[in-house]
Amino acid sequence: MSSLLSIWRVALLARKSFSKLVVATLCELGLWLLATHVLSVGVSSVMRVALPDVGILANYWLELMIGFCLAASVFFFVCRWTRRVYLHDVARQVRASILLDAVRPGSRLAGDGSIKAPASVAQRLVSEMLPVVETISTLAASVVACLILAIASPLCGFVTLACVVASTAGIAIVVKLRANDVQLTEHSLTRSLTVLVNDNLRCAGEVEQYGAGPQRNARVIADAAARSRAALSATVTVGIALAVDLAVLLAMAVLLYVRLASDVAAGQMPAFSALLAAAGAATLLIVNYRPRTIMELPVALQAVKRIDAILMADADDVADALDAEAMLSMEVVDGGGVDGGGEGLDSDGSSENASEQVDRASASADPTAFAGVLLHDVCCSIDDGRGLQGIDLAIAPGEFVSVQCDDEAERDVLCALLLRHAEPDRGIIALSGTRLASVSEDELRSTIVPVMRETALFPGSIRQNLRLGKPSAFDDELEGVLRKVGLDFVLELEDGLGTGVDEPAASRLSEDGLMRQRLGLARAILSPAKLIVMNDPTGDLGPIQEAELLRSIVALKGSRSVLFVSRTDRLERLADASYKLDGGRIH
């Protein structure tokens, strides 16, 4: 029942294109019947030539061969192409529907101008939907063709049934083996879908953080428009080709039928030849058509299940996933601040005096110049009662600051405060002498950029993933950054920067945590930001991979301000300043 509901939901999304499916299926059905008819006549003709009573059909071998070749070419070229056009049209309908839901203001799938999971889920849905729709149309044409053959000729129907029974054993074995393969991969496919959705939920944070949401939306919609124009052109071409080929084929069929009708009516076609003709037609239909369709059924059924899982996801599921997977979504509870100490900016350490100093500095600050970051007496509580308690921290321009912290929640909230994903309960956070709360969103995103514990990859090319940090970057600049972070292998790929991150050639990026983190570091380097906030970027790496990534991070020293917050203290000796965050306090 759930499978039928899934197919029905897909059909509703593509209801405007349903007529194309009907036309494609009817054309395929008609051409198959015509092809089997021509084949039957051809087999009869050949057999009559071989028999003693040759008959006048020997004179028609040229027309028969031409007709059969036309029928075969039309089926394998025009019909399958026509159906493909329909399938891609359905794909665009589904993709456009979900994208519009994602971009539309007020939608539960939209947020701050960035496309979250739906764009990727739409692509996944399309890829899962294609085998289902194709199998449905193939089965429809196949079943109806068999029924019409049986109604038109009981003898042909009997031969068709005999061929089906004879081939059942072999087909059953192949289908069982195929089904076993599908079942073995079902777990990995489900896991892949889960990882894909989670990755794209993380992508939402990175798109928003880099301020690239509107640009990405524009690129996605422009890409969809280009695909639609190309598909429209292909549809017109296919329509013309289909009309011409059908006209030629029908003319040939009428010619053959008229010339042979009188001979068949006079009883000049032996029953044995008719039987062989029916057997040939049925064998062509069964052996060359139905087994492929039957073998696709296990894949299609599994795809239907995954489509159902995607389409049944509601707002609560999306919200839960966002809460669980967003990298820096911090819920700051209301209430008073936590008392804490720490050295102030003045000799008396008062927050009031520090506030006055920041206000004076803000009045004369140059918004285009980066003058460092200051945290003074900052308190921030989190939902389990823990939090930061009066911390003081300063990061000067070009300074590399290391903060070691064992508590993941404390690491997250410290980075969240600087990225303005959380608000302090008390204290002052200043960026270049201006209160962080007063800094515009664009200025903040152009000044501070994060490198998180796990880098998210977008569906698309490596070039597109890198340009998230700098949309205007040329290939020479991208290649230079890749060499700097140790991703030289990308330049050796056949398509280079144009390689899709989901292609086998780029599997190292999607499967190797070190390579993903290096890509995230490359994004940060490409961005114009003066401060890079790193939240435990080596947390999911092994010792050797961690050492390799740290080598690339240390190379940034002096060129950018870096706040490296990590559970380890491996960079303590290499940093310009090192601290330990423990119990909510900086030591």
TrEMBL record:
Membrane topology label: Multi-pass membrane protein
Compartments it resides in: Cell membrane
Signal peptide: none
Family annotation (Gene3D superfamilies): ABC transporter type 1, transmembrane domain, P-loop containing nucleotide triphosphate hydrolases
Keywords noted in UniProt: Membrane, Transmembrane, Transmembrane helix
InterPro entries with a match to the protein in the record: ABC1_TM_sf, ABC_transporter-like_ATP-bd, P-loop_NTPase, Type_1_exporter
Transmembrane segments: 21-40, 60-79, 132-152, 158-177, 236-258, 270-289
Keyword hit for Transmembrane helix: yes
Region: Disordered, residue numbers: 339-361
Domain annotation ABC transporter: ranges: 373-587
Transmembrane listed as a keyword: yes
PANTHER family referenced in this protein's UniProt entry, alphabetically: ATP-BINDING CASSETTE SUB-FAMILY B MEMBER 10, MITOCHONDRIAL, ATP-DEPENDENT PERMEASE MDL1, MITOCHONDRIAL
Protein name: ABC-type multidrug transport system, ATPase and permease component
Source organism (scientific name): Parafannyhessea umbonata
